[in-house]
Structure formats: structure tokens, C-alpha cells
Amino acid sequence: MARWGSVALGVLLAGTVLPAAAQDRTDDNAVTQAEDGFGFSVGRESLGIYSAGNARGFSPTAAGNVRIEGLYFDPAIGLSSIIEDSTSIRVGLSAQGYPFTAPSGIVDQVLRRPDAKAGASILINGDSYGSYGIEIDGSLPLSKTLSLGYGVTGGRTAYPDGTDNWNHGQGLILRWRPAPGVEIMPFWTLYNDYNDEAGPFYVPAGNYLPPQPPRHQFDGPGWADFRFIGTNQGVLASYAPSKDWLVRLGAFRSVFDQRTSFANLLLGLQPDGTADRLIIADPRAKNVSLSGELRVTRSFVDGPRLHVLHLSLRERDARKPFGGSDEVDLGPARIGVPVVSPEPAFVFSQPSLDRVRQTTLGVAYDGRWKDVGEVSVSVSRAAYRKTTDLPGVPPIVSRSNPWLYNGTAAGYLSKAISVYAGYARGLEESGIAPPNAANRNQPLPAILTEQKDAGLRWNVTGNVKLIAGVFDLSKPYFGYNAASVYTQIGTIRSRGAEFSVSGNITKRLNVVAGGFFLDARVVRDPTALGNIGPRPAALPGHLINLNLNWRTPFVDGLSLDTSIVQRDRVPSTTDNLVSLPPRATVSLGGRYRFKLMDKSATFRLQMGNVFDNRGFNIAGPGIYGANNGRFITGYLAIDV
After folding, report:
1. Torsions phi, psi of 273, nearest 5?
2. Is the pTM of the predicted complex or chain greater than 0.90?
């Protein structure tokens, strides 16, 4: 019974992880800290086959599946690393135990809790592109029950296309424990971005990829700068009146205030690098999102069985302006030739406004039977209302009140092997239209999605874990219509398999590996026009990621690491007539942990893309940006 009591508390806190204190940045190491190979980041380190922007071929962030310690969060801008300890991508079995799972996976962020003792970390970073910066964060106890976490960052970030920016950020987080079982954590962060040039996007005139641009060279125009301010503020609170009850609240306000914004397009690009340069300027746009969740959890112990009930209320009120842009055609251009053109006087029209209000009430059950298995089910009802205000047109209102549900079951075949299966149906957002669309930046409609998955987990040894599974997802597919409006043109069905291997192969060698194999197909809408290929743009057929970390026996404190990523070819246009070729990248690095004036320190150095395999990324169907070539990055972290 005592054991089940501790397990019950763990289930009550599902979706939370005890994070590192604010002054131990020298321990950041994604390979040794990741639970699996699906996706994990800590500090300046990241790995995995999935990310916050791409999981199983879709974007969990765009879909609205971001959590802060398990509670619903709708970000207008991402959380700052000042208060964020780590981020994990939860799919399949790794999402087991998370109430109200979502078809596109979950992005779960863990906050960096202030410690009960004073301390700080200083991190100085730089890279071969010319980036440099400094980060300072720490903890300051104010009383026995109250601690303050703080942080500041500043520096210059340089990008592979030759653009750069100046930036600084600040953040505060309080941890107050006024009574046993009570914790209240308000936080605030701000990020400022200055002189951030709009890098070029390449739009070829025919069925071919762009010619490779010069390395780290920005052709201009220099006046086309982004300028924005992002803030996140909120509170996490929990109250556990007993080991069987837990009440949790998360309430957040996220703001992305984009003062100036530009799209730098090279249209009709020819194989010799000539094109027509079009600059699109946007009026000031302030995206504001209020979101949060109230969750009440009750557990019951029934002999070898544990039953947990969750009652959840989620709210969202998000406003996103779009449109009102002006543009200037700078005429003929050539890749690698600087632009000499004065800034015109842009005249903006009245922007449109997209507002979403959503209330979701749900109940979930999680049952665990010792040495037998576990089952989870949830049912929610969403009240969704979207209002679009267009200039000179009465508001366009759409409503939806769908039932959303999911269920998973896992069985323990032995102490080492378990199998699982699950189904989920969700209401998810679709992101925004790409920069070369006629409806550029317009929020796309919310969509109903569904997913089926199954797999197994095998504890190969005490330290090595294998997860393997299959999945089947369906959701609408967006592309360009005859008027270049980015809209729904069909449905994607993505069937695939994924795996993860993680753990200590030896006492000195850690491995985190993962991969997916995807068979994604498009079923076109009968009303869609144009040539639509059978495969969705921007989705590779497979991706493999291998990460190794070796603590050397010959130099105490020295570890060496490598990361290898290989992906299949990627259709880059809606008609599938152009594809990015397969790409493999290798990164090599090391870290040395030592004492600096009796303080813990870590020096980290890494060479990325060792073999200089550059290529392009896809910013939308038929529109490309430049990738990193070979580069070197490093930092020195000191805990004081």
C-alpha cells in the first residue's frame, strides 16, 4: 500500500519532471539526460527525430499541443531558456500517463525552479559565423519558503545566409511554498530582437532547385529588418491536501509584438542565379494569447490496482492580426550581388484580425494494475469560436463543438517487455500561410485530426531501453490554389514506423538513437485545381538520428560526442516534380569539465556539419531557404 501511495503521487504529477536548479548549467548534456530518441532539448543542447515544429510529419506547436509541466499553454512566442529547463516531445508510449494526449504529439516544457540556496551560472558562447553572447541565471532565497530565480541574456546571433541580429532577454520566476502541499510559481520573461535582417527566400521559375548562394553573405536590402518584442508571463500553482488529491492551475499570457516585418523574395529564379527581387513589408502586428488549464486529480488504491481520475478545464483566447501589407519590386537581381536601393515609403492598408476563443472541458481516467498493465481514456467537449474581421466586410464567425477523445492500453508481457495501442481524436490548429502566398501570414482553420498507434517497449538491459511502434494519422493538407491562396487542397494520410534506443551501453558510453519511416499520401479534394502529387511537400520518407557520448578514461572530465543525421529525399513542391536530395550530416564535439577557482566549469566545443553538406530547407511548397554549412560553436559555463 505504501508503494502504491508513492506511485499515486507520481501519477498525480503526470506531465511534470523535477528539473535542475538554476545554477547547474555545467551539467547540460542532452545525450546523458534524454529519456528517449524522439526529441529532447536542455540548455543549448538538443537531439531527436522530432521537434516542437515537426512530429510524425506535423507540427505539435502549430497544432496547439504545447504544455508547461503538463498544463495547456498556447504560445505566441516560445518560452525563454532563462526559465525553461528542458523540453521533451511525447509521442506513442512516451506519452502514456499524460492526460488528454493529442494526435500530433505533445511538446512538454519543464521550468527551471529556483533553488533553496543561493547560486548562479554564467555561460559565454560563440560560433564561427560571428555569433557571441552571455547568459547569467541563478537563484536567490528570500526566506525559508520563498526563492527567486533570475536571468539575463544578451548578444549577437549570426545566421548561415549572412543575416544577423542583436538581442537581449530578461526573466524572473518565484517559487513560494507557504504551506505543506502548496506551491505557487509566477514567472515573467521578455525577449528583444533588433536589426534582424530579412534573409532571402528563393522561388525558382521552373522544376529545379535554386543555385547554391555564396557562404554567409547577405545581399540586402539592409533596411529590411525585423524588430520584435516577445513576452511570456504566467503562474503555475499546485495544492495537494492529501496524497490522494491534487489541484493544479496554469494561467499564461503570451505576446509577440512584431514592430517591423519583411519577406525578401527572389521570384522567377533562374539556374544562373538571376531573379526578380520582391520585398513585402508588413504593418505592426501584435499577437496575444491568453491560455491555461485548471485540473483536479483524485486517486484510489484498490489492492494491486491504482485508479486516477482527472477533471480538466482549458481556456484559450488568441488574437492574430494579418494582412495590410505593402510591397516594392526592386527589379532584376542576382544571387551574390548586393542590393543598392533606398527604403521606400510603405503605405499599409487596414489589417485583418483573427480571434479564437476556445473552452474545453474534459474528464480522463488512468488505471494501473501491478504487473498486468495500464489503461487511459479521456473525453472532452470543445466549444470553439473563430471570428475573422476583414476590412469592409461583416465579421465571419465559425463555430465548432466537437467531442474529442483518446484511449490507450498497455500490457506487461514480462518485467522487461510491454506492448501498447492507442487512438486519439483532436481539434488542432494548422499554422499560418507561407511568405509567398497571396494570404501570407493568415491563420489557417482549425481541423479535426485522428491518430492510431501501437508498439512495444523493451528494457534490453538495466540501462538500455528500446521503443518501437507504428502509427496512422489523418489530417487536412494545405497548398496553393489557382489564385496562389494557401488553402486546403486535400487530405494527408501518414502511416509509418518509429523507434528509439537509449541508455548506457557501457559505464562510459551513452547512446540515444531514433528513426522514423513514413509513407505519407495525399488524397486531393475534388474541387482542388492544378497538379497535386501523391506525396505531401516537406515530408521525408525516413530520418535516422544517432547520438553518442563517451567519457574518456585517459583524461578525467573529458567526454567526446557525435551526432549523425540522415534523411531521405523530400518532395519540395505540391506537384512532386522537385525534391530535395537525401542529406546526411555529421557533428563532432567534446566537453571538458573542470574546476575554475574552485567552481564547477564546462568548456564545450562542437563542429557541426563536418562534411559541409549544405543544401536547402523548405519554407513552403516551392520556396527555399539556405541551410548551415560547416560551422564551429562553443561555450564556457561556470556555476558560481
Report:
1. 90, 0
2. yes
